[in-house]
Protein: NADH-quinone oxidoreductase subunit F
Amino acid sequence: MSVTVPGPRRPREDVLNKLKPVVTKRWMSPGAWKLDVYEQLDGYKALRKALGYAEADLIAFMKESGHRGRGGAGFPVGMKWQFVPDDGQEHYLVVNADEGEPGTCKDLPLMMNDPHSLIEGIAIASYAIKASRAFVYVRGEAIHAARRLRNAVREAKEAGYLGKDILGSGFDLEVVIHSGAGAYICGEETALLDSLEGKRGQPRLRPPFPATHGLYNKPTCINNVGSIAAVPHIVLGGAQWWKDLGSENAAGTMIYSLSGRVKRPGQYECSMGTTLRELIELAGGMEDGHELKFFTPGGSSTPMLSADSIDVPLDFDNVAKAGSILGTTAVMIFSDQDCPVVSCWRWIKFYAHESCGKCTPCREGNYWMVRVYERILSGQGSIGDLKLLESACKNLLGRSFCGLGDGATSCVTSSLKFFRQDYLDYIEGHKPALFDAEKIGAH
Structure:
């Protein structure tokens, strides 16, 4: 089934009201990445306010706000902070800026356009968990973002917002910007920690968990860029204000990254729980001549949903009820002119390439699924190949140290659920082969 979504010249008023620029409100301000401009736009006021709280009270405040992580899992931020034990050891805050999943693109513009909001959020979070050192792990290819963050750290330190005795509070904090080497697996939090320590980035077996045995075996809190950048706004606005921005069962706003078959792809910060229909309307509608066929609510590692889910509120709970995961809200939109089989093949190739190879099911399963997809798309497939894909997914799911293996199966199982006929069209010869089986060795 496909759905036509018209693109009005101007979105309806109730749809326009879904736009809530909070984290993104400074993005269009000229020079907002500079400290003097950031301070003119209420910058570092939240840090001054937060330093007036006791650490435990600040954590309780964040729990009250209902703020959940923006990195994919949606874990409550205040609860994650609370997991760091008050044991007198050195504590660390690590910000995961290793954004690398296909379709995901919200953290990079945040770091480029408003780096001081991230630095201010880091200072507040570090104060709450009693961390004296914080690290930002930036994707290796994002050299420009790392450069801008380093400049922001330098400005903040010179102004007294970082370093020794911040704003006369007695709180000390050093922030390190670390560039990775481009490995997708280092977006997994324990692989990220190993990479920070100078080791090969591979997931750790858990327990123990990072909250007690993290970086250098010390208590560590790991948060996503979006999770931390929202913190100053919540501190200034208040817990209830943040709740009121969202929907009934999901607090705050979310940056939805729209890509694919829409007229105006981009970043749309809206109330949590905005539907795909509303997002497409904000984006000017579907491209001319295209009808919605399927979409991913949170990037390639989340199960795709069919056009029937166009009115599902895109928040953590409702997307889960629909059979997917909100993930990083990388909303990739595909039309009736796009093939779900080809899309899955491309994603599985990515996961096979990015697997660290530590876990046999992930290393071997993804490799062989690529071969099966190439056999199907070259016109050499059989009904047995569909059973083979289902068996491979079953043997991958839950059998790896990290979520890469599980994420790789999402597109396969969901596409077989919604679009099995598209697979059969290649197998039965109703669709032309995508490439020559002899050339790729898929026969």
In short: The radius of gyration is 23 Å. Strands lie at 91-97, 131-138, 174-179, 220-224, 253-260, 266-271, 292-296, 305-306, 330-335. Residues 22 and 233 are 7 Å apart (CA to CA).
